[in-house]
Amino acid sequence: MAHNVWKIGGFALITYVLVMVFVVPMGPGLLELRSTEGTFISEEMERPIPEYFLTGFATHWNEAPDQLSVIVRSQSNLVQLQVIEVLDDTHARIGVSLPYSLPSKSWDVLINHPVDGTLLLENGLFLSDRFIDESLALPALAIEEFAADLPFHFPYQPRILETIRNLMLHVPMWFTMFVLMGIAFVASIKQLATSRSMVEDEKAEASVKAGLLFGILGLITCSVWARFTWGAWWVDDPQLNGALVTVLVYSGYIVLRNSIDNAPLRARLSAVYNLFAFIILIILLMVLPRFTESLHPGKGGNPGFNSYDLDSALRAAFYPAVIGWILIGIWMYRVNLRFTRLNKLLK
Amino acid sequence: MDRGNHSAALSSAWSRYVHLTRHAFKMEFRQKNGLAGLVLFAIASVYTCYQVAGSRADVDAWNSLAWVVLLFSAFNAVSKPWPEDSAEMRAYLVHVVKPQEWILARITFFSLLLSALTCIVFVAFTLFLGSEHLNGKQGLSFFLGMQCTSIAMASLLAMIQALAIRANGGFGLIAVLGLPLIIPVILIATRYGMDILNGISFADTAHNLLFLATLSGGFGALGYILFPYLWND
To answer: How do beta strands A91-95 and A49-57 pair?
Structure first.
């Protein structure tokens, strides 16, 4: 029992992570403020005002429809917009009555709501048909700020939206692959040092096979995520190319193993190749992406999240996910190793 | 060991290395049809590119075709098994040749062979696909990049060829093992070539050549350390 604690721990962590991934709600955000091309008029108004459609993401406007307030901002100028009607939690009709002369064409949209707090959509409103006078100052406006009062949630990220949950399923795959390939690397060095015994060779093989599985899973989750956020199943990105090539290199390792019949020779040759493979893995995934523009977070000017965006809710799921997947990976490697040894005994 | 003996050992190691390299060339020149095959393959691939892309290929196509032709010519050059790799010859050579000197000689041989092949590819390429994207200085920089790439490829492929032949695999195994491993080299090389063709000054993209040199050194060192495990039984 005692020596299986880490397996139970890994299993428990993954269960916890999967529950977190699918149960924790998303934090609120603003998607768009779009013109309906129509106008709106009520009894007390002198002339009709253009009607806009405001779409939120995971917001709770229906819980207090009267207290939703929509403000547009350009530098220090603030203008309150009229909320015509709150349709549901995430949709509202807005009347945009801005004067003809404005200090700017482009406005940030802010909403204030007692449940969601203050949400911001940068450059959410663009008015191209106005007279622009940059020295113009609009009348000052006093607004009341709400602090968000929400239960535990994942942060809203523009363009990533719900797929932020994939963070716990995609990124740990690479960490796990790194660890497993590292185990294989050490085993291969030991194999070359000991030469006669095949123990280390079996370890390297089992570890590479498990690592390759995680690499392929990483590629699949990557592809699905890229389709949503970047618009294509595969994009030209140094990290993606590096990952694919790494998987190809280790597939080459399996091919090499299968093409040699003589066991001691196979152990030696595949160990030699494995050392090359690990060095290339380091170069492809850790060195080259640092010198290239990348779509991945933390590199280049991309809209994704970087390490500063990992908030406490994501941390609470992401770090257990990394540890959990690594433990599961090591478990798989050990099962694989025992399977290889039993197979050998049977032959 | 005193200083005199040490330098004597070093100089004899050097002379053995030079001898092995010269031996490799001698063996290669004995089979003139093999060399002619390499040259023919290189020119034929360039000509195929010319037929496909025409003489007015844009910068992107020009650059990528140049590196792809170089890559496949290099793989073709290393695909031939050496008579020294047969089991009988190895059983003899193990006793007279140090594996480290042997792999260094092989790397040197392949570097020189690929350098020569690169010259042919470059001349044929500018001849058929035109050199309008390159002025004199750019051409020189591009050629320098090709030479560095061919040395990096040689230092990796010498080892991969030995490994594939030891595993009794043919050209297919060299390609399966070598192509993914060579991709970092090709990535750096194409980026360098693109920079040169886009008119970025040599000084601003020369760090790519430094990467290539580092990779060559790394592959060479790995080969030096690991080749004995391939060579001995």
So the answer is: antiparallel
